[in-house]
Amino acid sequence: MKDSNPKYALLIIDIINPFDFEHGAVLAGHTARIVQPLSRLKQQCKEKNIPVIYINDHYNLWQANLETIYQKCLNDQNEMILSHLKPGPDDYFLIKPKHSAFYGTALNTLLYHLGVKSLILTGIAGNICVLFSANDAYMREYTLFIPSDCLASVAEEDNRYALRMMENVLQANVQESKIILEQYL
pLDDT tens digits, residue range 125-146? Predict the structure, then answer.
């Protein structure tokens, strides 16, 4: 990516999702509520030359081909979400085999190559994949920013708990995306 801002990177975790599992419809509904702030955050990061990295489940395809995964996931339930948050040609796209964005992926190497020291973690599910990714990022000594309006989980209480864990245990800066953008980026 040309002229990237090496200090920060925006991670968008598991947003390309078919929601075809138990409680998937509930998570899709909660995810729909974060589309606007996440889309706005992504656009503003791009304007500031902050790299955008999508890291996603591969849904048993085991391919890092964005279009293949996107087409496998696309359905009536997620069409609005995906139409607003589909990766662009200058976004990075990685697949992950498990919950954490770091486990078994090239993410840490990519971040090192880009000179990134601070991560903005967004996506779904906040209490699983985003939380586990934040934990692994913390252990790798990244500074963490968690826009609270860009995270969704099946249960609202689980999402709030994950945000508290990231703030209190992982020392993440947890605030709305607008405040993070205005004060830190």
Answer: 999 999 999 999 999 999 999 9
The answer to whether the beta carbons of residues 5 and 182 sit under 8 Å apart is no
Q: What is the pLDDT of residue 62?
A: 82
What fold, for 8-184? Answer: Rossmann fold (3.40.50)
Domain residue ranges of the chain, discontinuous segments joined by +: 8-184
How confident is the prediction for the chain on average, in pLDDT? 93
CB 82 within 8 A of CB 36: no
Q: What's the average model confidence in pLDDT over 52-65? A: 87
Q: Is 104 left (phi over 0), alpha (psi -120 to 50) or beta?
A: left
User: Which residues, 6+ apart, have CB-to-CB distance to 138 below 8 Å?
Assistant: 144, 170, 171, 172
Residue 78: name the closest of 126, 30, 121 by CA: 30
Cβ-based neighbour number of residue 79 at 10 Å:
10
